[in-house]
């Protein structure tokens, strides 16, 4: 999902997929409904005011029509999601019942959103963002239980543990909303989210091919095996073409009515070909185009799946790692769906309230044996743009989906397989194109590499481990970027103390003697190299000349007699490299301004400042620290970098002290009888400057 909704809009993919922030293709925003007409005093969106007569009939008719359209968009996708969720081979014989469970879960979500959401036109369904984690749980449970455990026990264990995971997720979302912690969801790196969404894409492709062929397709190996059989390839062609057709329609027409019509055209064309060709339903089933006739799953059969005596509870703690990842992903995707709705409507929404709504929806869904869900951004906005500001739309979706649950027929036995597969392949194509290809233009090269590495890791290792690997790589990438940020800079600065003209002229002549450094941010181990390099290059010390013992002195006895030696620079950088200004005076004071430093770790303190302190002490240079926080000061003192006397409340007070010391030193040098006018090895040029200053007085 992308945080860049402020710059671009969501793709038409989201008209089927709840992961509605996967694409950002240009789209005009329609604000025909003035926001103030939709807002109540509490900031929530209100339903249309009651109208009488023909206006009321027209309003209800319009709401029913758009409720029907939303049902056409959601129901086929739910069958596809059932195949994703229960992709393990152990679930094959239970798919009629499990498919109805997924649809029933969507009914529960829609009921909760219709009752609780501040948006009366909201659509909330089972969401694919959390579905992959639940699929990983169900597959892990079946693999862990092995072949010795009856299939019924595997199915029961899976759906009950998944329900507990969903309800627990909902509790976390409610707590986050109540404590106003919705912003925490943004801590998951965007490239990792992108890699995960690309994985959803390829998983939808697996599920689409599985629907087309009736085979178990849940990894790259099984997908390749499908293409080894010509008949299986033939069965997949309509699904792939149908998915591509829906993608083209969604990108060309920004209207869900057209998309729903395109969806319904596919089975109509199929049955028309059967009619013209004289093909019976049994022939179509024998050819693999339609599922074999099966007895429909009744409500009592759905209830029989929840036999708590069959549950293997030892599998519950094994899913904790996957559950943690699901919490972050669902919270993140839900917040971004809310952000997308807010952007498109132009109305400020309460993120924490909406996240609480999503949370309660998942709590109830999980307790009733359902699965994770959230807002469907595209269908919510589609309904809003239709000016159908009514909860009747949600009620129509509830009735339509619940009718499928209660229907005494197995829908899969009468509808072509590729019809459901096309919706999944549509999602798969758009997700993978958007994140694996088009995202290159929206990210830095390293972020794009993190996305691909996350995608590969999730496919090769496992979902939760792959996500952790992606987060780890993203952290390393962040550190590489953070290390490059400037945390220290040399700036010319003088104190604000009042000085006489003579004092100011003396300080101007000795401005190189005080090196002022401004530090910022969090100083950690990665900052040490930068701090050492910049400070050492800006601090000048007296240079040792070849053939002369000790440092170059400034008295006449120490003056070089060879004129060529006068061209040798008398100063060098603290690290021994040549000074950029050979005529500069040696540094006597270093002021470290920590005003903008938020924190420092022990590694930076010892590997940067302790080394600098020792180097400067060797050359008689005094280091003072200004504007340090108590926590920063504590780290420096505890690591024996310096003493309490070296800290000053502000950079101005530290600079004033250093300037006063320089002035006192200069005055002492000029007033001491019988001694050279320069102390500590200052050059002849500097002596003449002092004499000139004195004569000016």
TrEMBL record:
Does the keyword field hold Transport? no
Q: Does the keyword Transmembrane apply?
A: yes
Keywords noted in UniProt = Membrane, Transmembrane, Transmembrane helix
Q: Where is the STAS domain?
A: 504-658
Question: What is this protein's name?
Answer: STAS domain-containing protein
**Membrane topology summary:** Multi-pass membrane protein
Cellular localisation? Membrane
Q: Where are the transmembrane segments?
A: 63-86, 98-116, 155-176, 196-217, 229-249, 256-279, 320-341, 392-412, 418-438, 450-480
Which Pfam families does this chain map to? Sulfate_transp
Q: Which GO terms describe its cellular component?
A: membrane
Q: Where is the composition biased (Polar residues)?
A: 1-23
Annotated segments matching region Disordered: 1-54
């Amino acid at each position: 999902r992308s945080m860049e909704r402020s710059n671009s809009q969501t793709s038409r993919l989201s008209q089927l997929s709840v992961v509605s922030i996967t694409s950002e293709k240009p789209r005009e925003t329609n604000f025909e409904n003035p926001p103030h007409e939709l807002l109540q005093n509490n900031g929530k969106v209100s339903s249309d005011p009651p109208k009488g007569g023909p206006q009321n009939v027209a309003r209800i008719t319009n709401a029913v029509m758009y409720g029907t359209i939303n049902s056409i968009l959601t129901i086929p996708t739910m069958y596809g999601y059932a195949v994703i969720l229960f992709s393990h081979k152990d679930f094959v014989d239970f798919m009629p019942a499990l498919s109805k469970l997924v649809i029933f879960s969507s009914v529960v979500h829609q009921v909760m959103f219709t009752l609780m959401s501040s948006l009366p036109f909201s659509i909330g369904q089972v969401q694919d963002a959390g579905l992959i984690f639940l699929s990983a749980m169900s597959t892990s449970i079946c693999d862990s239980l092995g072949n010795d455990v009856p299939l019924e026990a595997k199915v029961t264990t899976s759906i009950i543990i998944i329900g507990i995971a969903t309800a627990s997720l909902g509790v976390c979302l409610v707590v986050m909303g109540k404590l106003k912690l919705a912003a925490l969801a943004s801590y998951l790196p965007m490239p990792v989210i992108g890699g995960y969404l690309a994985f959803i894409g390829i998983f939808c492709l697996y599920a689409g091919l599985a629907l087309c062929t009736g085979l178990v397709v849940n990894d790259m190996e099984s997908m390749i095996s499908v293409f080894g059989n010509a008949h299986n390839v033939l069965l997949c062609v309509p699904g792939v073409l149908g998915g591509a057709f829906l993608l083209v329609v969604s990108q060309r027409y920004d209207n869900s009515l057209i998309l729903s019509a395109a969806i319904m055209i596919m089975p109509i064309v199929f049955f028309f070909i059967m009619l013209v060709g004289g093909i019976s339903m049994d022939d179509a089933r024998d050819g693999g185009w339609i599922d074999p006739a099966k007895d429909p799953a009744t409500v009592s059969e759905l209830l029989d799946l929840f036999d708590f005596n069959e549950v293997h509870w030892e599998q519950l703690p094994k899913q904790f790692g996957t559950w943690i990842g699901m919490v972050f992903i669902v919270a993140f995707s839900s917040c971004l769906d809310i952000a997308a709705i807010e952007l498109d409507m132009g109305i400020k929404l309460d993120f924490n309230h909406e996240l609480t709504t999503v949370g309660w929806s998942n709590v109830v869904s999980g307790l009733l044996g359902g699965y994770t869900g959230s807002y469907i951004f595209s269908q919510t906005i589609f309904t809003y743009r239709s000016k159908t500001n009514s909860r009747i739309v949600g009620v129509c979706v509830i009735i339509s989906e619940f009718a499928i649950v209660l229907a005494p027929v197995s829908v899969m036995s009468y509808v072509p397989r590729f019809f459901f597969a096309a919706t999944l392949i549509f999602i798969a194509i758009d997700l993978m194109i958007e994140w694996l290809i088009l995202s290159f233009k929206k990210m830095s090269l390293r972020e794009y590499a993190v996305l691909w590495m996350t995608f590969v890791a999730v496919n090769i290792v496992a979902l939760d481990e792959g996500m952790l690997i992606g987060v780890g790589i993203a952290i390393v990438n962040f550190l590489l970027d953070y290390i490059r940020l400037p945390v220290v800079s040399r700036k010319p600065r003088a104190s604000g103390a009042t000085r006489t003209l003579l004092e100011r002229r003396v300080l101007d002549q000795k401005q190189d003697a005080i090196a002022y450094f401004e530090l910022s941010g969090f100083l950690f181990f990665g900052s040490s190299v930068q701090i050492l390099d910049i400070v050492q290059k800006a601090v000048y010390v007296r240079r040792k000349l070849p053939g002369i013992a000790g440092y170059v002195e400034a008295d006449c006895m120490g003056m070089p007699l060879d004129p060529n030696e006068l061209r040798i620079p008398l100063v060098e950088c603290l690290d021994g490299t040549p000074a950029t200004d050979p005529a500069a005076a040696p540094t006597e004071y270093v002021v470290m301004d920590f005003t903008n430093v938020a924190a420092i770790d022990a590694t930076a303190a010892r590997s940067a400042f302790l080394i600098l302190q020792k180097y400067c002490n060797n050359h008689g240079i005094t280091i003072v620290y200004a504007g340090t926080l108590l926590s920063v000061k504590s780290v420096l003192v505890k690591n024996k970098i310096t003493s309490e006397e070296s800290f000053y409340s502000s950079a101005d007070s530290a600079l004033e002290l250093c300037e006063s010391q320089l002035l006192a030193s200069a005055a002492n040098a000029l007033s001491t009888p019988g001694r050279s006018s320069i102390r500590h090895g200052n050059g002849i040029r500097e002596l003449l400057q002092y004499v000139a200053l004195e004569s000016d007085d």
